[in-house]
Amino acid sequence: MGDTSISAVPGTRELDTLVRLYGKPTCVVSDNGTAFTSRAILKWASENQVEWHYIDPGKPQQNAFVESFNGSLRGAGQSGR
Length: 81
What we know:
Blueprint: H1 8-22, E1 27-30, H2 39-47, E2 51-54, H3 64-77
Parallel strand pairs: 1-2
């Protein structure tokens, strides 16, 4: 499976692209990973007036939709084995 991680600065460019395509969210929910707690992400959220909510550490069930999607994505990458 390929690397699915993305660092903060390229992540902000991806967020800009998603906002252009789908509109600006009112809130983003994420884990406390380094890419999501960086100054670049916090600056992007502030400049775009997007609330950023972090789930509690060790509580992936608070972000169950994304965790389910990630599991499906990982599973899809392994189907050709």
